[in-house]
Amino acid sequence: MSFGDPNNPYGAPQGQQQGYGYPQGQQQPGYGYPAAPPVQQPYGAGAPMTTMPGNVNTARVLLWVIVGLQVIGVAIFAIGAAAIDKVKKDNSIPALSNYPVGVLWAFAVLALVWLVWAAVLASKFTTGGNGLRVTTLVFGIITAVLALYPFTIAGIIHLVLGILIACFVGGANGKAWFNRPRY
């Protein structure tokens, strides 16, 4: 059997003659799978983001909600500490004479520090970079973890707010917003 026969299907491939088939470098249309559309960036390729994405803006609003809750908490702890201190001095309620007022003042200071931290984070969302994103993520996670211990109504609210803040800032839109080019 010889491979020289042009009609032999098992023969060596024959070169294309000039004028037959398709020109070099082009493919026949209609065969195989269609080409995939180009991959797009969340807000266009290279286009600067001018408006904050909705879920990132929601995370900022939730930080301001935490600020409001912390104002209420600072007031409750401070008023409670002052009232118990007054009762201890008057010795009008003996059951409260051994209550540690310093613990309530410590809680008031901790709530005030948390208030300031949340306010600083929320106010920097328009200008902050990836470091602010990571700090806000840490803030949300710590808020959620600290809310687990007392597990009161305020604890449940802080738990939900902390989880939502961490999810919204840690998502793709949060990453795109905080890593956007600033011109």
UniProtKB/TrEMBL annotation:
Transmembrane annotation, as ranges: 61-84, 104-122, 134-151, 157-178
Region Disordered, residue ranges: 1-23
Biased composition (Low complexity): 9-23
UniProt keyword annotations, A-Z: Membrane, Transmembrane, Transmembrane helix
Keyword hit for Membrane: yes
Membrane as UniProt keyword: yes
Domain of life where this protein originates: Bacteria
Classification via SUPFAM superfamilies: beta-sandwich domain of Sec23/24
Name of this chain's protein: Uncharacterized protein
